[in-house]
Amino acid sequence: MPRLLALFPLNLVVFPGEKLNLHIFEPRYRQLVHDCVESGGTFGIPPYLNDGVSELGTEMRLVGIDKQYENGEMDIRTKALGVFRIRDFHRQAPGKLYAAGTVEEITDDPGYDEILKGRITEYVQQLYTALGLRKLFVDLPPAYRIYDVAHNLGLTTEQEYQLLATTSEQERQEIVLEHLENILPVIMETERLKDRARLNGHFKNLTPPNF
User: Fold this and answer.
1) Number of independent structural domains in the chain
2) Which of 15, 119, 177, 196 is the most buried (most CB within 10 A)?
3) Which residues contact 30 (CB under 8 A, 6 or more apart)?
4) How many whole angstroms separate alpha carbon 124 and alpha carbon 149?
5) Boundaries of each Lon N-terminal domain copy (predicted)?
6) Are residues 96 and 13 in the same domain?
7) CB within 8 A of 139, min separation 6: which ones?
């Protein structure tokens, strides 16, 4: 059912389930936050890409205001809910400073492929180990979704938006698997070259081959 939703366009993609901390300083978005507090309502973050507001966005719930400054600025905590599509964009909501949109929710299929997940998990472990981010892998819950790792896979904002535009977990698995298969050999080779460069100028203790 289409409904009007306050919008806060940003140069980033937010995935469902993600926790996002924001510093609010513009008057229009301070007004948006105050309205959310008063009504208990939500707002949307559509990515601002290619000099325009994207058709898709993520609905956000205000979790809390951590700090309010004397000049009216504030630090807030939010959590992402689901994905929506903007049917009509309004530069200003009726009687408000901030933008709004007539939106409709997008239904997502959570079903995934266990074999694909196993291969992705193996690649993610290799990637995080090569980049020195092994703790991220250790902290990864067994029931993780693609959304839970997407920001740490070297995707561009446009690629992250492509993930947001998918409507099934299995489709996201296929996109991420192809991405990892492309970038992992490059990253592994880069790290190997870094190791070789670090050895330059040092005495090397090498075992000669037997022949």
Assistant:
1) 2
2) 15
3) 24, 72, 73, 74
4) 9
5) 1-184
6) yes
7) none
- Residue that terminates a domain, selected from 45, 78, 105: 105
Phi/psi of residue 125, nearest 5 degrees: -60, -45
209 domain residue, yes or no: no
Of 4, 94, 12, the closest CA to residue 45 belongs to: 12
What's the pLDDT tens digit per position in 143-194?
A: 999 999 999 998 999 999 999 999 999 999 999 999 999 999 888 777 666 6
Q: Which domain holds residue 149?
A: 114-199
Q: Find residue 73's DSSP bridge partners.
A: none
C-alpha 115/C-alpha 119 separation (Å) is 6
Residue 124 lies in a domain: yes
39 and 123 both lie in a single domain: no
What mean pLDDT is predicted for residues 126-148?
85
Task: Give the CATH number for residue 51.
Answer: 2.30.130.40
Q: Which residues contact 50 (CB under 8 A, 6 or more apart)?
A: none
130 pLDDT band, cuts 50/70/90, is confident
Domain contains 206: no
* Tens-place pLDDT, residues 2-29: 999 999 999 999 999 999 999 999 999 9
